[in-house]
Amino acid sequence: MHTSYLAMPELFAQLGLENSNLAIARFIQFHYLPPQTPITSATFWSSSQRRFLDECLQQDSDWCELVDQLHSRLRRH
User: Fold this and answer.
1) CB of 33 within 8 A of CB of 73?
2) Phi then psi for 66, rounded to 5 degrees?
3) Which of 17, 27, 66, 76 is the most exposed place for a label (fewest CB within 10 A)?
4) What share of the chain is helix, strand, coil (3-state, %, to 5)?
5) Residue 21: which residues within 8 A CB-CB, separation 6 or more?
6) Which residues 6+ apart lie within 8 Å of 48 measured at CB?
7) CA-based diameter of the chain, in Å?
8) Where is 49: in which H helix or E strand?
9) Per-position pLDDT tens, the chain of length 77
């Protein structure tokens, strides 16, 4: 049984992004995902970031819930 808790800072670190709470808030503030656009189609991801996000969703990995949360936060407008 997997018992470790993953949080948004860990996801950002996995994506190779600054993962402080302030950096995460700024990223979300300055990046927008239009409605009906999958998170993996966002133009601001590198190819490796896009591949990681896609694998998380396809494999329903431990990261999946966080990826879904990030997707929701990026569609805030």
Assistant:
1) no
2) -70, -40
3) 76
4) 55, 0, 45
5) 9
6) 16
7) 38
8) helix 47-58
9) 454 688 999 999 999 999 999 999 999 999 999 988 999 999 999 999 999 999 999 999 899 999 999 999 999 75
